[in-house]
Fold this sequence. Notes:
By secondary structure, this protein is of the alpha+beta class. About 35% of the residues lie in helices and about 30% in strands. It has helices at about 10-25, 45-60, 90-95, 115-125; strands spanning about 5, 30, 40, 65-75, 75-85, 130-135, 140-145. The chain has a five-stranded mixed sheet, covered by helices on one side. A two-stranded antiparallel sheet has the order 1-3.
Amino acid sequence: MEEEEFYLSEVVRKLETYYRDKLSYQHIEFSIMSYEDCLIKGDSERFLEVLENIMENAIKYGDGRKISIHFSQEEDCQLVGVVNSGNSLPEQEISHIFDSFWRGSNTQEIEGSGLGLFICRRLMGNMKGDIFVTGKEDSMTVTVVIPRV
Length: 149
């Protein structure tokens, strides 16, 4: 883990470059909301890895209609939320989503180890950030929190 300063736009541009065509090919509507560019403190490659893992989960476990990326700020932190349509987990399971080797009831036929979000939480903790999940009836949001400079 390397601590560095990097612009949010650098990571967003990499995400968009990779996922715009991939999601278009899969007929999944993809949008990136407007945001204010800022300097972030952390490891840019690990931060990108976390967001890619969240995106892959949204593709695998969402309903295949929409994925969007939202941005907000709280105090001295940047929040980046990945929202997928279709709430694919019962509310009582959401509290286990970051447990190692845990897989939800929506994963029966989908490959995976149950380590992705566990590793994401560790990486965000190492960057003095956080990650959390909220579910609604028709969507699920995974939000990462990372310090701003």
